Amino acid sequence: QYELTPEGLVSSDGKDYIYVDVPNTPAADLYKLLEKELIPIFPPSKTTYNKETEDRIAITTAAMDLFRVSAGPMMQYIMDIEYTIIIDIKDDKFRMRTPTINLIGTLENFRVSRMVIYDDPKNHKDFKKNQFIFNYKDRSVQNEKAKLAIESHINKVVSQIVKINSVNEDW
């Protein structure tokens, strides 16, 4: 389980990776298995797969409409997140690193950040209080709904990846 902190996502056991054993599976076969099994989890329309080497898959994807932030009277920002997961592959196992959140904003214009996890408000003078997930001074949670939505999404995705642990030989 991952928790969102001012430093980003942190696992409950304090490690920055998860190992998954896939017995009797050479790295090349495991790579192909992961390639196939990741497609339903991360649809190509919202995902970039970086597969430069046969021992690593880097996935950058977006989760849409996770939560909303008030932007004024009768107006809301629909918040999406973009994040990256790196999976290293060896014979009989793979290691998934802790996901990294790249941006929180609206997908149409990710270049315009609509929310920050934790930063000095002086660097974001146009932002309102509810656009910061954590308070800069005391590190308390300011937007519980956003924090829980991000944690829930990431933990669901991670649990789906961890279940990829055997070669499916169905005809």
Question: What is the count of helical runs?
Answer: 2
Helix-strand topology string: EEEHEEEEEH
The percent range for helix content is 10-25%
| Proportion in β-strands | 35-45%
Major beta-sheet overview: 6 strands, antiparallel
Low-confidence stretches: none
Distance between the termini: 34 Å
Our Rg estimate from Cα atoms comes to: 18 Å
Oligomeric organization of the protein chains? single chain
Decide which structural class fits the backbone: alpha+beta
Overall pLDDT confidence: 87
Shape label: elongated
Record field, number of beta strands: 8
Q: Could you characterize the architecture of this molecule?
A:
This protein has 171 residues and is an alpha+beta fold. The protein contains two helices and eight strands; from the N terminus they run βββαβββββα. The strands form two sheets. Strands 3, 4, 5, 6, 7 and 8 form a six-stranded antiparallel sheet that branches. A two-stranded antiparallel sheet has the order 1-2. β1 (2-5) and β2 (8-11) form a beta hairpin. The protein is elongated. The model has no long low-confidence stretch (mean pLDDT 87).
Can you summarize this structure?
The chain has 171 residues and is an alpha+beta fold. 20% of the residues lie in helices and 37% in strands. The longest helix is centred in the C-terminal third of the chain and has 19 residues, at 144-162.
Topology record:
Layout: E1 2-5, E2 8-11, E3 17-21, H1 27-41, E4 47-53, E5 56-72, E6 75-90, E7 93-97, E8 100-105, H2 144-162
Antiparallel strand pairs: 1-2, 3-7, 4-5, 5-6, 6-7, 6-8
